[in-house]
Amino acid sequence: MSDTRYIRIFDTTLRDGEQAPGATLNRAEKLEIAHQLAKLRVDIIEAGFPIASPDDFEAVKAIATEVKGPRVAGLARAIEEDIRICWDAVKVADVPRIHTFISTSAVHMKYQIKKTPDEVLADTRAMVSLAADLVRTHPEADLEFSAMDASRSDPEFLAKVLDLAVQCGATTINVPDTVGYALPLEFGDFIRELYRLAPSLEDVHVSVHCHNDLGLATANSLAAVRAGATQVECAVNGIGERAGNASLEEVVMAIRTRGEYFQSETGVDTREIARTSRLVSSLTGYVVQRNKAIVGRNAFAHESGIHQAGVLSEASTFEIMTPADVGLADNDIVLGKHSGRHALRAKLADLGYTLSDAELGDAFKRFKEVADKKKAVTVLDLEALVSEEIREREDQFTLTSFVNQSGSAIIPTSQVELLARGEVKKGRSFSNGSVESVFAAIDDAVGISGSLADYQVRAISSGKDSLAEVRVAVEVNGRSFNGQAVSFDVMEASAKAYVRAVNNAAAAGEV
Ligand code: MN
After folding, report:
1. Same structural domain for residues 146 and 87?
2. CA–CA distance, 48 with 145 (Å, rounded to integer)
3. I need a labelling partner for 284 at 20 to 30 A (CA). Which of 88, 193, 304, 456 fits?
């Protein structure tokens, strides 16, 4: 169909998503997610906010250098230093973008940026022009302008700002519902009104960025698509500031499932959705609720007998999409204990992992350990094991052994041995709880005093022989670091997850 519109998916998992409390990601983790977003074939990756800190700058630059396919954007306030630093971080990308923003609502102008409407117009002119000059030095670069708190702005004034931004060189104009205040019908009308008041919007891409404070982020984004928007900003699993952003998987699958209604399509490879969701959940420590649309554990589970019978005779009776559409179908048995190194290498290549020979050797050893204890090794198991292998590449601390004694009649005690920056370090502790004593023993060995902010255990698959995944959030010197690990043994997974958080703290210079 010739009039199908292409909707650009702008992923902000690594910028707005990472602003979710406690979702902090380090550079290696951001790169891992960015590579997966490229496999998911999003159109734009917003890699971070380069002025925010040297770490942010380096992470954005690393993604711009390494990750091929999607456009790589950096965020910048409409301030000269922000824009120049943002450009320095993204300009190495094949297709870079500066994304600059200024507030346009009365309440933001008065209290947040303390500028008059005329000053906002002047800044828009000056800063969008500056950013446009910078992106013109690169053949593929482009420029996005956002009006912060657009949905609570006076439409006439907002339209003036947007027209001006287009005149000064912005080619994507974003209309954010920054505080999640909009309602779907109203937001659709608002976008139509802006097209009417600011005719230059017809010449550029109109984008929306909706927050989920009223649970309406996806609905508002879709209303905007229906009203003419051609870019949606969203985050995997809907993470982000406060109640989060529009969730990528919901927006993409709604457009795909109801393509005829929207007369639209996206370029996302939906079969990568489930894996991307698991990766983001695991690295941010944000668990996906069971009944979450598209990516929740129960999203395709039919419980009632009537529904089950229907799906068995004809899937479309109760399924509007299939598990295969979102990449959930191949989670079953993949390898067994007789599978060899070649089979493992082939399966890992299918999953998109490229390992060196030494890493493959290690992965094979761990695979065999799992296969000996568990009849069928699934994609989920492999993913968990190999991800861990890859994340250990730059570790400064490795757990070499631990002993833990606990029970109802004794005080739990633990001893651990770590390889700490090449040196063997031992630690011991006794505490009220068994997990607590292992963590305290690691603190003793490393010489820190971490405080546990969050602790979660989950089975990777079903069955008593499942691998256990533990996620922790550990505060070191007032900063929070996530760690995750898998093992058959919950205590071992706990210890390794804690050591991973210590490594993340070390990478950030806190240990
Ligand atoms: Mn936001």
Report:
1. yes
2. 16
3. 88
- The answer, yes or no, to whether residue 487 has pLDDT greater than 70, is yes
Containing structural domain, residue 311: 299-325
CA distances from 248 to 153, 240, 251, 252 (A): 26, 12, 5, 6
Instruction: Please give the distance, rounded to the nearest whole angstrom, from the Cα atom of residue 486 to the centre of ligand 1.
Output: 33
Q: Which two tokens stand for residue 237?
A: 């699993």
CA of 212 to the centre of ligand 1 (A): 10
Q: Please report whether residue 175 resides in a domain.
A: yes
Distance 233 CA to ligand 1 centre (A): 9
Distance 240 CA to ligand 1 centre (A): 7
The verdict on residue 292 lying in a domain is no
> Does one domain contain both 221 and 346?
no
pTM for this model (two decimals)? 0.89
Cα 274 to averaged position of ligand 1 atoms, centre (Å): 23
d(CA 148, CA 173): 11
Residue 460 scores a pLDDT above 50? yes
Domain boundary (366, 390, 414) is at 390
Q: How many domains does the chain have?
A: 4
Instruction: Give the distance (Å) from ligand 1 centre to CA of residue 475.
Output: 25
Query: Who has greater pLDDT, 189 or 381?
Result: 189
Looking up residue 264, the CATH number of its domain turns out to be 3.20.20.70
Q: What is the mean pLDDT of residues 123-131?
A: 98
Ligand 1 centroid distance, CA of 18 (Å): 11
Q: What's the sign of the alpha-carbon dihedral 182, 236, 96, 112?
A: positive
How many angstroms does the Cα of residue 11 sit away from the middle of ligand 1?
A: 11
Q: What is the pLDDT of residue 330?
A: 60
Kindly state whether residues 350 and 215 are assigned to the same domain: no
Indicate if 315 and 340 belong to the same structural domain.
no
Q: Quickly state the pLDDT bin for 333 (edges 50, 70, 90).
A: low
Question: Among 147-151, 178-182, 185-189, 361-365, which stretch is predicted with the lowest mean pLDDT?
Answer: 361-365
